[in-house]
Design a protein that fits this description.
Elements (H helix, E strand, L loop, with lengths): L5 E5 L6 H11 L6 E6 L4 H12 L2 E8 L2 E7 L2
Length: about 80
């Protein structure tokens, strides 16, 4: 079983689309749920933690999966 409740695929999308798609998906999740954002844009490493800090979500970290980075966010 994965370490997340939902996943959003943002492979090939450039800033700000990974943040916008993560935001939209997080709105539909219950508080405490974990979202996995699959992104290839290097700016997501900066943008997603900043978004989480501003929006009250917890950025749990990231891990490489080949050329894709998996970003984990816990909804606040």
């Amino acid at each position: 079983m994965p370490d997340w409740d939902e996943i959003v695929d943002c492979e090939g999308l450039l800033c700000p689309l990974p943040v916008l798609r993560a935001r939209k998906r997080l709105l539909s999740l219950a508080s405490g749920s974990v979202l996995c954002v699959r992104a290839t844009d290097a700016m997501a490493l900066i943008d997603l933690p900043h978004f989480c800090d501003q929006a009250g979500h917890a950025y749990l970290g990231n891990q490489a999966d080949g050329t894709v980075t998996l970003h984990l966010i816990r909804r606040g």
